[in-house]
Design goal:
single chain, mainly alpha, 50% helix, 0% strand
Length: 101
Amino acid sequence: MSNRHRTGDVVLPHPEERRVHARSERHRVNTALADITGQIQGGAEPDEVIEPGIGFRAERHHDPAKARPSQRRRRHWKLKMWKRRSAARRIKAAMERFTPG
């Protein structure tokens, strides 16, 4: 997204830093799952084993109000469905015009 949507007060971490952080979190969860698999194969009951949770989730929206879908109505004339419909009607009208009957 362009810079015009970013405010000056929010300092976003560098993309490389976010990537490294997300990778380390994936690695942590995968190793924890491997440990759990070993415990279950070792004889522990699956209900007794504690599953690892996601400790890190990239923050996509700082404001939950902005994260909600827009209340604007969909512009039907901008949709491909509407354009195909209009084109089909135009072709049908042209065929009726040139068909002797």
